[in-house]
C-alpha cells in the first residue's frame, strides 16, 4: 500500500492573525503613521527656510517618494522577475487610489477642520502637469506592452516634472485661500 503525501500550498494555510489582532495592529500602525506625518509636516517649513528647497518640489517630488516607499520595492523587484504588468498595476493602482479616495477624503475632512480651507481647485500649473502626465502614461500603456524605452520615457517625464517644480516661481505654486 502506497502512502500519498499531500503537498501543502498557500491555500491550505489559514490566516496568520485573528481579526481583532489585525484590526488592533492596523490601528496602531495608523496612529504611528499619523504621528510621524505630523512631525514631517512640521519640519517642511524649517527645511524650506534652512536649505532653500522649494516647497512645491518637496510636496510634489520628495514627499511622494517617501510616502510610497513600500511600493518601490515590488515596483523594482517584479520587472526583474519578468512581471512588468504587475509593476505597472501597482503604480497605476496607487495613483488611482490617491486620486479617487485620498484627495476627496482630504477635502471633506478639511471642511470640518477650522482654518484649513481646501478644495479641488489646484491651479492651472498643477492641473496641466497632472493632465500631461496622465496622457503620457495612457499613450505608453495603451498597447498593453512594456519595454525599457517606455520606462526610460517615464523616468524622463518624472525628471522633467522635478525640474519644473524646482524652478517654478512661488507665485505659481498654489493659490492661497484666506
TrEMBL record:
<feature type="transmembrane region" description="Helical">
    <location>
        <begin position="124"/>
        <end position="142"/>
    </location>
</feature>
<protein>
    <recommendedName>
        <fullName>Sodium/calcium exchanger membrane region domain-containing protein</fullName>
    </recommendedName>
</protein>
<keyword id="KW-0472">Membrane</keyword>
<dbReference type="InterPro" id="IPR044880">
    <property type="entry name" value="NCX_ion-bd_dom_sf"/>
</dbReference>
<dbReference type="InterPro" id="IPR004713">
    <property type="entry name" value="CaH_exchang"/>
</dbReference>
<keyword id="KW-0406">Ion transport</keyword>
<dbReference type="Pfam" id="PF01699">
    <property type="entry name" value="Na_Ca_ex"/>
</dbReference>
<keyword id="KW-0812">Transmembrane</keyword>
<keyword id="KW-1133">Transmembrane helix</keyword>
<dbReference type="InterPro" id="IPR004837">
    <property type="entry name" value="NaCa_Exmemb"/>
</dbReference>
<feature type="transmembrane region" description="Helical">
    <location>
        <begin position="149"/>
        <end position="168"/>
    </location>
</feature>
<feature type="domain" description="Sodium/calcium exchanger membrane region">
    <location>
        <begin position="23"/>
        <end position="161"/>
    </location>
</feature>
<feature type="transmembrane region" description="Helical">
    <location>
        <begin position="86"/>
        <end position="112"/>
    </location>
</feature>
<keyword id="KW-0813">Transport</keyword>
Amino acid at each position: 500500500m502506497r502512502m500519498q503525501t499531500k503537498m501543502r500550498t498557500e491555500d491550505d494555510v489559514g490566516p496568520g492573525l485573528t481579526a481583532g489582532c489585525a484590526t488592533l495592529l492596523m490601528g496602531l500602525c495608523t496612529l504611528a503613521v499619523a504621528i510621524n506625518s505630523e512631525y514631517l509636516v512640521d519640519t517642511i517649513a524649517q527645511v524650506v527656510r534652512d536649505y532653500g528647497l522649494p516647497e512645491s518640489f518637496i510636496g510634489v517630488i520628495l514627499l511622494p517618494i517617501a510616502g510610497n516607499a513600500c511600493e518601490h520595492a515590488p515596483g523594482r523587484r517584479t520587472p526583474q522577475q519578468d512581471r512588468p504588468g504587475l509593476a505597472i498595476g501597482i503604480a497605476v493602482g496607487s495613483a488611482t487610489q490617491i486620486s479617487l479616495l485620498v484627495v476627496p477624503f482630504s477635502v471633506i475632512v478639511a471642511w470640518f477642520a477650522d482654518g484649513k480651507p481646501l478644495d479641488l481647485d489646484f491651479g492651472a500649473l498643477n492641473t496641466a502637469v497632472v493632465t500631461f502626465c496622465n496622457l503620457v502614461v495612457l499613450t505608453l500603456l495603451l498597447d498593453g506592452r512594456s519595454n525599457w524605452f517606455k520606462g526610460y520615457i517615464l523616468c524622463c517625464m518624472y525628471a522633467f516634472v522635478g525640474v519644473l517644480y524646482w524652478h517654478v516661481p512661488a507665485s505659481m505654486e498654489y493659490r492661497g485661500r484666506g
